[in-house]
Structure formats: C-alpha cells, structure tokens
Q: What sequence folds into this?
C-alpha cells in the first residue's frame, strides 16, 4: 500500500487490541469466574470471523477506470458476548484494498441488545438492518445499501451497509411495531465514479474517476435524522406489514442549483407488503409510494420526482436441490408531464421502468457446490444485469468462489446499461473460523 | 452466506430421533397400526417440548469428514400432530448464528412453513416447501428422516416378530414420489424405539440403513442419543449425536420473527 490511511489504520489496530484484551481476560478467568471483579470477568467473548481474498478484472476496456475491478484482502473479526442483561456485538473488517491502494477499516456492527421486558426489544449502535420482501429489490427497506460492493463482486453480505441507529421493537397481541431512529442520515454507499464508471447526465456521457460525484449530504446529528417504522402481523403464516419512512433519498436524488454537487432531497415513503405460501412456493407482494418532499409538484428538474413502486415475486423448488424465483417490479414516475416539460438536458426517462428478475440456484455434490444465477432484465430500459456465481466448500472452513457481474444495454443512460464497461469476473477464497 | 441456505434447505427437525416411550408390553402382539403409531410418537413427539445439542459428522467414501453442530428446540402442538422447530447453528463457521425455523404441518396437502434467518444481512427469508427426500444440511440424513415421514404416506405390514423386535414393512402409496420401493423398520418391543430402518430400491436391493446406536433413558423417556445413516451406494455415512437432551422445558412460543432476529438463550447455549 502506497498511501496507508492513517486514521483507519489506527482504528483497526485499536479494534484488534481492545478486543484482544477481554479475550485474554476471559481465557484466564475461565477457571476462576468470580475472582478479580474485572469488568471482563463476566464477559466471556466468542471470537469468529474470516479471512477473504478476492481478485477481479474488467472484461471490457473502460477508459475511466482501472482494469482491476476488485483486488482486496479482508480480515473480519466478529466478537460477541452474552451477559445476563443483554447481548454485545462488535464486528469489523480490516481491509487491504489494492485497487484504491489504501488500507481501510470498516466497522460493520457495534451494538448492544436489550430485552427489558416481554413486549420490548432494544438494539442500539451500529447495526445492519433489513426488512421487506424483495429479493435484491428494495422498496420499503430504506436502510443503507452498498451498491459499489454489490457490483464489483464482494460477498452479498456487503450489499447491506450498517446504520448507526436505535431500533425499538414493540410486541403486542394485535400486532408488532418496529421503530428505527437514525440520528444522522446514513446514505447508501452509492455509485460515485470511483470504482465504477457511470452515466453522467451533466456531461451527457459515461464518466468515472474523471468526474467523481461530489455530494452535499445532510449530516447534522439529531437534525438530519431518519425515522423508519414497520407495523407487522402474522396471520396463518401470511406475513403482513405496513411501512413508513421519513428521511432522504438514500442515493443522490437531485443536484444543487449550480449543478456542482449531488444532493439527497427529502423523501417520505409509505408502503405495505404481504408474503406467504402460494401453491408449492412462496409468493410476495410489496408496494411503496415515494414522496419526493422537496419537489411535490414534479416541476423541479434538479430533484427526482415522486414514484410508485410495485413488486410481485414467487419462489419455488422446481427439482431436487434446484430453486427458481421470479419477480416483477414496476417503478412509476409521478407528474411525468411536469418532468418532461422541465427537463434540462439529456434523453428523457420513460415514465415506467419495468424490471423482471430470475434467480436460479442449484446445489450439487452433497450441497457443497452451489451454482446460482441472478438476472435483472428491464424490457423498458432494454438492459440486463447478470450475476453468475459458483461457490464450492472445500471443507468446513475453506470456501472458493468464482463469479461475474455482467451488464448489457441498448443505451448508455439506463440503470444497468450505464455499467456496461464495468462487466467483470472475480475469484475469491474465504477461510472462516 | 447463501451457503446457509444450502446448509439448510432441508433440515427439518431433529429431535425426532430422540425418544421413545416406555411400554411394558407382554407377549401378545398389538395390531400393526398400534405399533407404528406408538413408534411414531416415541420417535418424534416425546414430552410436550424439548431441546438438544446435535453434532453431525459426515464421512464420505474418501474418509473426508465434515461437521455440523446445532441446537434444536421443539414444541408439539399435539402428539402425532403439528410441531414447531427452532434450529440454531453453531458449526461450521460460515453458518454460525443462522437460524432455521419450521412450523411442521401433518395435515394432508399442507406444506410446512419454513424460515431462515441470515444474521450478517439481518434477513429473514421464507423457504419454499421442498422435496422432503433431499439431504438435510448436506448429510446422509434426509429431511424426512429427521422430521418424520407421515404415517399416512405408506401402508404398513407386520412381517416379523421376535422376542425383542417388531419388524414392519412400509410400502409407499405414491411410489413415484420417493426413491425407495419399500422400507423395513425394526421396533424395540419394550419401548417402541425404532432401532433400524432399511431402505430397498426398485431391484429389491438394500441401499440405505439408519441405525439407532445408543439409547438412553432421559427423564422418563428412552431417547436415541446416537444414530448413524449409511448410504451403501455412495459409501458415505453420517453419524448424529445428541447431548444436553431435556424434555418438558416449558418453552414459550419462541417460534416467531422476534426470536429469529434474536434467539433465546436456550437456543444459543
């Protein structure tokens, strides 16, 4: 690494050091649990994690990005402890990233879980949050995603970026309620040109490292906050849920007046979902209304319009150890005529974006070999994203995988079409402990 | 990650191979329906609920070993009827902390409801009801061995009675849905514990054997604490050992989303 990042390195060292302490303490206290009275004596800590090494290259020449799409070594340590009064968890990755030529530390989780009584659970701190029914399509899940990781071939685990939040779960006879408060806006780790080339509408062409997106992000503690809520109930194993969100577009949803910075305008979302057995498989339906609160009329060309989003999905085992899942998704722009009338530049988007996904998963060799293919296809955008992956478990600790991120499209400005030159293949090895 | 799924697709339940009831049967021979009903309850419905730590060792023909370790919590809705299972994985490391949950339904044409919780993504996935004769977590046990095959799927015939055992022949009513042509179960006359299951293929050749290797009395229930399945065709075998077995632990209704996201202490220890 030419330019080791000092702050993250220090954090990483601190992380390893701090958490090796309790471990040592726990070890020595094994025989003498109550002696000493050290804070750690009651905290036997479980340590797990993995070492993951990944290499990937672009299959097409991309004049805005490096040929290597991913090249990194990663050590994840996952520490947890279960004292009587709650659960403690810290999980972090120390990363040597040979593409950015930087060392990095990614604190994935650091939280405390409490169950103060029969009807309340609390989880405070850095945590990964997920809800909703889609398979790699998100409507009411407005927790941060890491799209960069998703497209360069990191493990699916990294599609979810952590939130710094408080989650309160209330359980009642009639229904259950989750409330998530994020005191400071946690945006997606969105496409910004640093690792993936993208369509830059201001330039009217593909761009990448030459036009990295600068953002003006709401980042005041307790003022630029997010609220997400889910009211849910299970009726005969049909899972019903209502959702609400008050916050910001998670990836940039507009630009400032001088068009020099991407912004995250206000966003409110209201939605619902249902999931349950349908025939031999599992069916799900989810809808959401995206209210772009800074541009209710849809006239402002610098801010994304409101949308309706619809999803229907079905998964079934179609043969022994062979599962197929299909989804249909529709994203419908509101105030489309206002959008068209006020468009500043570039080709106009369609009002409706249709998307179909297909997931095929086959297990072989006593389930040690998994072959899977996830495909997004948009008949309206005329673009495709395919995610083939073959994963083999050499033994209980060692896994190898090979996969790809393939993009096709008739146009450079569509969602997947813009990533054509990022088409890549990767190999990875992981040792888990 | 989805490894987990892999691991789980099948799993079912495990407590099954657990237990047995006591029954000081004299020398008279009950009818075959009574025998299979008793053996079913003994094998899969001991106590009103229970827990166990399960260790599986899968050994293939080349003598390579793989381990699975998980805790199982079970609660019966009624003897011989619906059950709920909660499975918390401890090993191998890539599936650690994953939870697999089943609401098992015995009614005709009612598929089980199954969920999988992936902690790294905080994701609860519904799993489509699958073929029950596929491998359970990559082992030689099948989903159905673990959760129990519904008695109504086969016809039963008592083919042999010895001083120790009843031997019941089971012929599937829908032969095209299974890979065997019939199987024989040897049931201990004293306590109705199934001691051996032998599966025969279409050529009437024995190809698969499940044996109860060790039975212990736990609380008041005779319990299979070690069983082995041998696949005579592939040369692979899987040993399943149960420890920390407890019955009638007064489990609350933990078989719901709240406990998937944060398992109860009984499950993780």
A:
């Amino acid at each position: 690494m030419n330019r080791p990042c000092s702050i993250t390195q220090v954090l990483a060292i601190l992380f390893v050091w701090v958490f090796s302490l309790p471990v040592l303490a726990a070890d020595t206290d094994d025989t003498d649990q109550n002696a000493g009275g050290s804070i750690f004596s009651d905290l036997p800590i479980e340590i797990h994690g993995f070492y993951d090494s990944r290499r990937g290259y672009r299959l097409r020449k991309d004049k805005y990005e490096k040929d290597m799409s991913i090249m990194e070594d990663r050590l994840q340590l996952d520490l947890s402890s279960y004292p009587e009064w709650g659960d403690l968890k810290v999980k972090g990755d120390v990363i040597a990233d040979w593409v950015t030529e930087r060392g990095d530390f990614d604190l994935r989780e650091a939280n405390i879980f409490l169950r103060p009584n029969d009807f309340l659970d609390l989880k405070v701190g850095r945590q990964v949050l997920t809800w909703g029914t889609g398979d790699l399509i998100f409507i009411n899940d407005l927790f941060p995603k890491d799209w960069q990781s998703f497209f360069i071939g990191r493990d699916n685990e990294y599609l979810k970026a952590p939130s710094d939040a408080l989650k309160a779960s209330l359980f009642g006879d009639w229904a259950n309620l989750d409330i998530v408060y994020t005191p400071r806006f946690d945006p997606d780790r969105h496409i910004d040109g640093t690792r993936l080339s993208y369509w830059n509408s201001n330039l009217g062409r593909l761009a990448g490292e030459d036009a990295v997106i600068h953002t003006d992000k709401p980042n005041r503690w307790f003022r630029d906050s997010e609220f997400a809520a889910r009211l849910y109930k299970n009726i005969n194993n049909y899972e019903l849920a209502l959702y609400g969100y008050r916050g910001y577009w998670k990836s940039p949803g507009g630009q400032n007046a001088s068009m020099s910075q991407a912004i995250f305008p206000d966003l409110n979302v209201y939605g619902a979902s249902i999931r349950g057995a349908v025939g031999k498989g599992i069916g799900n339906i989810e809808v959401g209304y995206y209210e772009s609160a800074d541009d209710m009329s849809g006239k402002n060309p610098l801010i994304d319009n409101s949308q309706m989003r619809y999803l229907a999905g079905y998964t079934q085992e179609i043969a022994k150890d062979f599962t197929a899942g299909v989804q249909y998704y529709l994203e419908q722009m509101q105030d489309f005529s206002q959008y068209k009338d006020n468009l500043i530049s570039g080709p106009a988007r369609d009002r409706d974006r249709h998307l179909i996904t297909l997931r095929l998963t086959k297990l072989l060799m006593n389930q040690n070999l998994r072959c899977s293919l996830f495909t997004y296809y948009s008949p309206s955008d005329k673009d495709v994203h395919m995610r083939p992956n073959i994963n083999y478990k050499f033994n209980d600790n060692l896994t190898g995988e090979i996969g790809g991120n393939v993009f096709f499209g008739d146009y450079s400005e569509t969602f997947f079409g813009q990533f054509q030159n990022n088409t890549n293949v990767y190999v990875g090895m992981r040792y888990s402990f | 990650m989805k490894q987990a799924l892999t691991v789980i697709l099948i799993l079912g339940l495990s407590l099954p191979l657990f237990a047995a009831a006591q029954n000081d049967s004299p020398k008279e021979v009950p009818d075959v329906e009574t025998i299979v009903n008793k053996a079913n309850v003994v094998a899969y419905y001991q106590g009103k609920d229970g827990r166990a730590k399960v260790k599986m060792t899968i050994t293939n023909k080349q003598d390579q070993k793989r381990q699975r370790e998980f805790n199982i919590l079970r609660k019966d809705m009624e003897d011989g009827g619906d059950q709920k299972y909660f499975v918390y994985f401890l090993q191998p490391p890539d599936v650690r902390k994953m939870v697999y949950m089943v609401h098992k339904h015995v009614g005709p044409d009612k598929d089980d409801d199954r969920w999988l919780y992936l902690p790294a993504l905080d994701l609860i996935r519904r799993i489509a009801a699958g073929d029950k004769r596929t491998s359970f977590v990559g082992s030689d046990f099948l989903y159905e061995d673990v959760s129990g095959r519904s008695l109504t799927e086969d016809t039963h015939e008592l083919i042999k009675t010895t001083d120790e055992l009843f031997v019941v022949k089971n012929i599937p009513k829908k032969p095209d849905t299974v890979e065997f042509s019939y199987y024989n179960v040897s049931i201990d006359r004293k306590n109705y514990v199934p001691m051996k299951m032998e599966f025969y293929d279409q050529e009437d050749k024995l190809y698969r054997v499940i044996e109860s290797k060790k039975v212990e009395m736990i609380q008041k229930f005779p319990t299979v604490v070690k069983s082995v399945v041998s696949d005579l065709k592939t040369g692979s075998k899987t040993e399943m050992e149960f420890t920390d077995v407890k019955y009638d632990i007064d489990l609350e209704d933990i078989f719901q989303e709240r406990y998937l996201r944060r398992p109860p202490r009984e499950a993780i220890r």
About this structure: The domain at 2-268 of chain B is CATH 2.50.20.10 (outer membrane lipoprotein receptor (LolB), chain A). Chain B has a mean pLDDT of 88.
